[in-house]
Design goal:
By secondary structure, this protein is mostly beta strands. It has 2 domains: about 1-85, no CATH class; about 90-249, no CATH class. The chain contains 2 helices and 16 strands. Strand 11 (about 135-140) and strand 12 (about 140-150) form a beta hairpin. It is globular and about 45 Å long.
Length: about 250
């Protein structure tokens, strides 16, 4: 597996991270027929520097819809000269910034502090994946998984040893939604956690939290993954979530 932010760049010698750039000077604005009024979609094609180690050459089309302003749709593709691709994963990083500790599945909430209990090292820690049948179902069969902080006021915690990690926004729910038509049989949720902030020895206040938050599945050209960032609570998404009476601490 190649990681775009960790592999060395050939376009920027001596620097880590594959270069990404917008393929055109302007995005493409499309009006889609819908009721009661048309929906506008703004799409931008993002090219990715080829992966040297495994030969992958890919690009992503990022789209925002006027009726879903809290979501970013990421459709993944490959160029003709790319090596065969088994999975093409887009991931949400920086979960440690808001200190995400709750992963919301179909019938339970996974707490990072319990999941990684006893971990004392300074690297990334991960365990099992969560299968499609453990994910929430949303709308017309979409698969959904959400992540939140356990804190009532995450911006009230000051990280004095590394001020850049101090969170300064409101409580936000992060989520991945996979449209029903793009779901593959091996769809799964993957998270990892950290005890200390990246590239430091600074302990994350309140305990281990999730850092990378993603969904993975067999690659099909053009498949889309939707990342959301919203002030809505998880129980506002699905009628099955209110069974978890309130946000656990």
């Amino acid at each position: 597996m190649g990681f775009s932010e960790l592999e060395m760049s050939e376009m920027d010698p001596g620097k880590r991270g594959k270069r990404l750039w917008v393929a055109t000077t302007e995005g493409k604005l499309t009006r889609l027929p819908a009721k009661p009024q048309p929906v506008e979609r703004l799409s931008v094609r993002i090219e990715v520097e080829p992966f040297t180690a495994n030969g992958a050459h890919v690009y992503v089309v990022a789209s925002i819809y006027s009726d879903r302003p809290h979501e970013l749709e990421l459709a993944v593709h490959h160029h003709d000269n790319s090596a065969p691709i088994e999975e093409l994963t887009v991931t949400a990083t920086m979960g440690n910034f808001e200190r995400l500790r709750h992963l919301w599945l179909k019938d339970r909430v996974v707490d990072s502090r319990e999941l990684y209990a006893g971990y004392t090292d300074d690297g990334f820690v991960d365990k099992e994946n969560y299968r499609r049948d453990e994910m929430l179902m949303y709308g017309d069969g979409d698969a959904l998984v959400l992540a939140t902080t356990n804190e009532d006021n995450p911006s009230g915690v000051k990280v004095t040893e590394r001020p850049s990690w101090t969170y300064r926004s409101i409580n936000l729910t992060q989520y991945w939604r996979v449209p029903a038509r793009h779901i593959q049989p091996d769809l799964r949720v993957k998270v990892n956690g950290r005890r200390v902030y990246w590239a430091s020895k600074v302990t994350i206040p309140g305990g281990l939290s999730f850092e990378n938050f993603e969904v993975r599945q067999r690659y099909v050209p053009g498949q889309a993954f939707v990342f959301g960032l919203t002030p809505k609570h998880p129980w506002e998404f699905s009628p099955s979530i209110p069974r978890l009476a309130t946000r656990p601490k």
